[in-house]
Amino acid sequence: MSEARPKIEIVDTASGPDAPFGVSASERGSRERYALKAEDTFAVIDAHGDINADGAGSDGVFHADTRYLSHLRVTVMGADPLLLGSSLAQDGTYVHADLTNPDIARDGRIVFGKDQVHIERTVYVHAGGLRQRLMLSNYSQATIDLPVTVSFNNDFADIFEVRGTGRARRGTRAARTLDDTEVEIGYMGLDGVARATKVSFSQPPASLGRSEASYQFKLSSRERAVIDINVSIANVQQPQPKSFLAGLLRARKGFARKVAWCSVSTGSNDLNAALERSAADVSLLMTSTPSGLYPYAGVPWFSTVFGRDGLITALELLWIYPDMARGVLKFLAAQQATASDAHSDADPGKILHEMRGGEMAARKEVPFGAYYGSVDSTPLFIVLAGHYWQRTGDDMLVRELWPNIEAALRWMDVSGDRDGDGFIEYYRAASSGLVNQGWKDSGDSISYADGALCRGPVALVEVQAYAYEAKTLAARMARHLGHARRADELERQAAELKRNFAASFWSDEFECFAIALDGDKHPCNIVTSNAGQVLRSGIAEDAHVRKIAQHMLSPHLFSGWGVRTLSDAAVRYNPMSYHNGSIWPHDNALIAAGIARVDRVGAERIFKGLLDAAMRMDQQRLPELFCGFPRRRGRAPVLYPVACSPQAWASGALFYLLQAMLGIDIDGRSNTVRLDRPHIPAWLGHVEFDDLAVGDGRVSLRVSRDTNGAAAVTVIDNSADASIEAV
């Protein structure tokens, strides 16, 4: 039965102000930054342990999209200490900085020489605040007077203000001292919510004002002074141990439980280090929700639920950590749209794009309180559900989610395809929404060959591939649940989509899929990474798969570090842009997974390029994106200045690439582990998996390279009594 297709005013995607929701790239200080996170609270601090030491900047302590501390600075003897060194703990739970005093001069002469006071600062974040221990040790030969000042402040800025969005009005702020060790900074927002930050000290300072604490220590040689600073978010009721060290131990134990899912080792020390960092970052971003754990997208700008990001991260890690997918699916099902709303780009059955908890979202100054302007989250929800079911055999969850899957399928057929041509299109329903609603959502990311911006409604190439995969998987689930007629219909729709896809999107001239069809069904014939994301779905013919693989690995797209989002031959190519020539690790992982179907060695080039990039980046961490400049001998990749780091789907990329290289397919329904043409290059040597969940048991395997370069599989443990197949 056909359904009436709702009508909506179309806002042309080639116009409209998109700037308010971009990241403002203001100049940042020269000090290195570290990100810490626990549940809904995160902090960005500098290498000294300060926050915006000069009084302005984008760092801070944040909770639920509001900044709760915008300034923290420690001076010793009236001066900023000198940095000796600082580091993030390997598990990502705390930062430790070693500093010392500079030369202290009075009236043109040095009265106290440098390097005589050792200053240690240890910082960690807990759910609802930040703690810092300041330890000062006198290594001079004399007793010294040591003045120490801690300045602090907060502006209660919304995360969108921090990103550069201006506001005509703000709420009211007030600060007061509560006693001789504690200050409260309060804010009454325009949304009617009272927010407050408390800054307290473990020992009373000599003087305490509303934004500064001053100490006057007298330390004999080898004597030490300790100050614990506690920043707590008054709105969060989360009991913490009184002791600084007990709180840190709790944080580290909690993190160890989160990261226990990762049990991979290889013959490459570089890959081991990168996987360890990636696992730590994914675990750091995982946040407890009523539906289970959900990977928040990234720190600092996207430390919240994003539908697309969570779905792709869960897909990347599904083979090794299926529990994450369960939490993502249940959360997004609970938030699935049930009504149409232009402000939030919502329609019945649509899956969430983004959820925000700050003042601006509450007042609808931005549309992102619960925003649905994502064209791909809905088919990706079905894709993840189908792969999760195949991976785990969890019939109970599939039955629970089936009404949500059917609602998502209806959205794809009706609201997602308003002109009824079988392709899913997007356009924003209100001028406040996102202009572009695929993963490349910057305003200039979808264009024609001459550089002009695409006129909507827009049908993205990779979204049609997601739709094909979604309907194929939904048909399998429907048949398993006893809905045979529905399964037949979904299979028919998928076959029809596959037939029409190549005719509409393939360009014989470019030998590539167009990035999109415009509102008049004219193709946007530019060579982009989007075409590479099509390959893993099965919608493309084998001949087209090989052509696209060649494009992805050509110098126009492959920089040596990874595949660019846009060919360097395109008019809009800019290697420093967000989506028009940069390199995104998650994009590369999805592309390589498709290429691996026909060319394992080609997929290896992408894998090795990204691994080499990670090893030349801070903390061996792949960020959200980096610049697309060609790889040059002796040079590191060029960073994108305001990329999120860590970013969940970037952290999942190496795991997905490893799965693609080894051809691992775990089927919980048949209790089977299958390795399809596993490829172990010489630099990798071997891969060992410990305690992979299969059915109700566990499997441990070692895949190694033999003397002839072929892969050999050794079963170490098989408590699951699984069938292990290598082909």
UniProtKB/TrEMBL annotation:
This is Amylo-alpha-1,6-glucosidase. Residues 312-616 form the Mannosylglycerate hydrolase MGH1-like glycoside hydrolase domain. It comes from the Bacteria. Gene3D superfamilies: 1.50.10.10. InterPro entries: 6-hairpin_glycosidase_sf (IPR008928), 6hp_glycosidase-like_sf (IPR012341), GDE_N_bis (IPR032856), MGH1-like_GH (IPR054491). GO terms for biological process: carbohydrate metabolic process. Residues 36-229 form the Putative glycogen debranching enzyme N-terminal domain.
